[in-house]
Design a protein that fits this description.
198 residues, 3-stranded mixed sheet, two-stranded antiparallel sheet, 9% strand, mainly alpha
């Protein structure tokens, strides 16, 4: 009885996420105004915002055919690349709180809409967490991996050249793959301004 309750609860939550993804406006359709100064936290926040904007438009309007597209037999598909970016977005979100990321043994499967919603929300929340932080505060940020009883800990520096740069790299791959599949990204996207041209 209790197991059936939790299965039903999971189905309801998954349905709600899908409805939210379809109804709400996702973050990063454009980048908000820049911060007042170049403090360390503000710089990292802006880098995350830049990733969020690029990811938003790279994944906007993808078809089932696009999601299944892969450049080679052993390469990741567009959808698998989105899943990979989502996993890293969890690391980006958890690091300011020095909380460990533990990869689930049976990862939950999300739809395209859910992946976009979850990834963009992770990036938005991570950007807000680092905004305005001083270098002293950022000394406490940690990248922590947990696998069973084993824990590995790294300074936040590793996240900058690791997950953050990697997500930007993979977002560019999605742009390239969708173009190769005949569905290029909106040509009015201006990553320099963080807006789309009218």
């Amino acid at each position: 009885m209790e197991k059936r309750f939790f299965v039903l609860l999971f189905v309801i939550l998954a349905f709600q996420i899908k409805i939210q993804a379809q109804q709400m406006e996702l973050p990063y359709k454009e980048i908000h105004d820049y911060p007042a100064n170049y403090s360390p936290g503000n710089l990292i926040s802006r880098m995350i915002d830049g990733l969020g904007f690029r990811y938003y438009w790279a994944t906007e309007g993808l078809t089932e055919k696009d999601l299944a597209f892969r450049p080679s037999e052993d390469g990741r598909s567009v959808f698998e690349t989105m899943e990979h970016i989502y996993v890293m977005s969890n690391n980006i979100l958890l690091a300011p709180d020095a909380k460990p990321y533990e990869r689930p043994t049976n990862p939950q499967k999300f739809s395209y809409e859910e992946l976009r919603l979850l990834t963009l929300n992770n990036l938005k929340a991570a950007s807000e967490k680092v905004l305005g932080k001083t270098s002293e505060e950022m000394e406490h940020f940690k990248v922590i991996f947990k696998q069973g009883e084993r824990t590995s800990e790294f300074p936040y520096w590793n996240l900058i050249n690791g997950m953050l740069a990697d997500c930007i790299h993979h977002t560019g791959q999605i742009v390239l793959m969708r173009r190769a599949n005949g569905n290029p990204q909106n040509p009015n996207v201006n990553v320099f301004l963080g807006k789309t041209k009218e």
